[in-house]
Amino acid sequence: MLCWLNRLHGALPAPTGRIAHLRPSSLRRRLALSSQRRIPEFSSFVARTNTCGELRSSHLGQEVTLCGWIQYRRQNVFLVLRDSHGLIQVVIPQDESAASVKKILCEAPVESVVRVSGTVISRPPGQENPKMPTGEIEIKVKTAELLNSCKKLPFEIKDFVKKTEALRLQYRYLDLRSFQMQYNLRLRSQMVMKMREYLCNLHGFVDVETPTLFKRTPGGAKEFVIPSREPGKFYCLPQSPQQFKQLLMVGGLDRYFQVARCYRDEGSRPDRQPEFTQIDIEMSFVDQTGIQSLIEGLLQYSWPSDKDPVVVPFPSMTFAEALASYGTDKPDTRFGMKIVDISNVFRNTEVGFLQDALSKPQGTVKAMCISEGAKYLKRKDIESIRKFAADHFNQEVLPIFLKANRNWNSPVAKSIMEEQRSGLTRLMEIQEDDVVLLTAGEHKKACSVLGKLRLECADLLEARGLVLRDPALFSFLWVVDFPLFLPKEENPEKLESAHHPFTAPHPSDVQLLYSEPEKVRSQHYDLVLNGNEIGGGSIRIHDAELQRYILAELLKEDVKLLSHLLQALEFGAPPHGGIALGLDRLICLVTGAPSIRDVIAFPKSFRGHDLMSNAPDSLPPEELKPYHIQVSWPADSEAEKSSLNQPYCPES
Ligand code: ASP
């Protein structure tokens, strides 16, 4: 049952049976010893001799003291005690002389905290529990103490008991007692520890903390604003330590890393948090391959030993190829269903919308083959896929079912000529029972639509029982050769940085900056895992003139906001580059958790609230005065205004 805990903690230390009151000299010795040991001492410094999960038959006869929560009680005879290391069965004494111990253990409500002392004994033959790591033994209790009682719980502390996420977040401290949350947070801590070891001890990185009260950075994500006591002046919470890490390179730190908290005021998205953690890295005198090898080594070194080992080097794909074949810059390469350009097959088509698209200068026809789709997908599935494309992308999608009799079943089957059929079959290697989805339009749009449908179809096929994405498989991919700039979404005439404005252009494209900047490739790289972007970075611009030109002339940003950085680059800034790994997302994928909130101890809700403490919260006007700010209440927010005096009611 608790094999994950055993895996996580590894082999446990040999039993000592000692009482945890240590004299200073032995404490010093223990500390010195434990710093050399690989196996941690889980019971040092505390009022227990052992953890609940560590006792085995080899401990038989030992006198032990355990502390933990009452998980459940059976017929007032047995009690199962839990701590962060596992479960153990405790036998409640039944004899008169131990009446007070029995009273404590029988009356304390479930989830109360107790300390028990007694002897490790073997369970009577036939009563062993092979599913429990401690299932061969039990504790014959001599003394018991109620350390704290537990009142009626809002939900049972059992992983299989269903509870809403809102309730879990409201009582997060109880939710954290679940095995799953314990596992996720401990695995996270262990991976971070290994990363520190790899970076600092094996590769000479320096862990430097950078400020969280900072100023606005032009471009990029929306930042949280913090009022200051100076009228009209505000700090911003940094979206990442980007400027500081570059300045540390100018300062000669050479190799920086930080487990950095970052903040982005980007509204609610299921896989994002307004505050999140990055493993932030910067190095001097490095190129793209140097950073990539470092990260491959880092992940290999810190990867949990109970997962399949990470295989390096990771494959690499250009941004252009990712878009053309997968319709996204973060392809899930665990399965095929690649997008194929079939424009040439349909040059002389009679199908209206294909003809229409191909008559335009940038027009293309794209297709994707869902192998065995006809076996698994129903007509209504295809209809919902078409509706999805129409509703979300205003894009027509045409299905073709290839039947066993080789007949094509499609709304436009009659209009597809024989040579088009054979051309398509050859190009896409279509087989019996496959379904082909066709769409047409400008390259990026058509690919993006099919990219989204590829994932939708994968979900549908898996819901019908086909395994496309092996849950044990970790498919890493570098995406490289991004464009330096993209057209701004709200104003496509203007450019914005594809990564951030400090990213260096590809050395062979520098001249294009002055003629066709939209064609310049960058030295930006993203790391993708199973279709999720888990990291991104770049080689930076270390030439002040080039940085100024890009900011002022191409991005039309106010260079004054970055004058400190531009100045620093003029004082002998070394060539440098770096990357940041999104720690929450990485741990979420490693643990297989359904959401990044499951790997963060105290996450914000979907709407960015802390449901436990009710942050963000209102402040009375007099507390806002020192900051020279006033709330201008929107017209329809009477309710919010009056909530200043209302008790807190969490979102559901
Ligand atoms: N600061 C960047 C980010 O947060 C990462 C980097 O370029 O190193 O995406």
UniProtKB/TrEMBL annotation:
Q: Where is the Aminoacyl-transfer RNA synthetases class-II family profile domain?
A: 185-603
Q: Which domain of life is it from?
A: Eukaryota
Q: Which InterPro entries match?
A: Aa-tRNA-synt_II, aa-tRNA-synth_II, aa-tRNA-synth_II/BPL/LPL, Asp-tRNA-ligase_1, Asp-tRNA-ligase_1_N, Asp/Asn-tRNA-synth_IIb, AspRS_core, GAD-like_sf
Under the heading PROSITE patterns, the entry gives: AA_TRNA_LIGASE_II (PS50862)
Question: What Pfam families does the annotation carry?
Answer: GAD (PF02938), tRNA-synt_2 (PF00152), tRNA_anti-codon (PF01336)
Tell me which UniProt keywords the record has, alphabetically.
Aminoacyl-tRNA synthetase, ATP-binding, Ligase, Nucleotide-binding, Protein biosynthesis
| Entry annotated with the keyword Protein biosynthesis | yes
This entry's Gene Ontology molecular function terms read: ligase activity
PANTHER family for the chain: ASPARTATE--TRNA LIGASE, MITOCHONDRIAL, ASPARTYL/LYSYL-TRNA SYNTHETASE
> Which family does the UniProt entry place this protein in?
Belongs to the class-II aminoacyl-tRNA synthetase family. Type 1 subfamily.
Q: Which HAMAP family match?
A: Asp_tRNA_synth_type1
Concerning NCBIfam families, the annotation shows: aspS_bact, PRK00476.1
Return the protein name: Aspartate--tRNA ligase, mitochondrial
